[in-house]
Amino acid sequence: MQRVNLAVVAQSPIERVRDIARQRGWRHLRLLSSSRNSYNGEYGAEDPNGSQLPALNVFVRRDGEIYHYYNTELLYAPRRPGQDGRHVDLIWPVWNMFDYTPEGRGTNWNPRLAYETT
After folding, report:
1. pLDDT tens digit string along 104-116?
2. Which residue, 28, 87, 83, is CA-closest to 57?
3. Exposed (0-12), middle (13-18) or buried (19+): which is 17, by Cβ within 10 Å?
4. Among 56, 69, 52, 9, which Cα is nearest to 33's?
5. 34: exposed, middle or buried (C-beta count within 10 Å: 0-12, 13-18, 19+)?
6. Please, which residues have CB within 8 angstroms of residue 75's CB and are 6 or more apart in sequence?
7. Residue 45 CB neighbours (<10 A)
8. pTM of the entire predicted model
9. Alpha-carbon distance 65 to 59, whole Å?
């Protein structure tokens, strides 16, 4: 029985998403484009000005219908000064490891947005 179907949604046109996936060797990750639809705005991945926001959404299929089950709403909660958002940490477990070190995550714990290709 298949229990989970994972897809990553990017605002870029699908052609660009596919090119990046090929460059990085991503062959088995389901990538989707939201460049020509309202998905980002409707499901919390875009603010009213069009700025992109990280979001994790969970959908469930029941009795042949698809329902929106969950969104990482902690991103929208007020933060203390200097506090980073921790809304999707459950899917980034390696970053949580830094929380146990004396320095914590530090000021530059975010992942790189460019990767070397081999």
Report:
1. 766 665 655 555 5
2. 87
3. buried
4. 9
5. buried
6. 44, 53, 54, 55, 85, 87, 88
7. 21
8. 0.65
9. 10
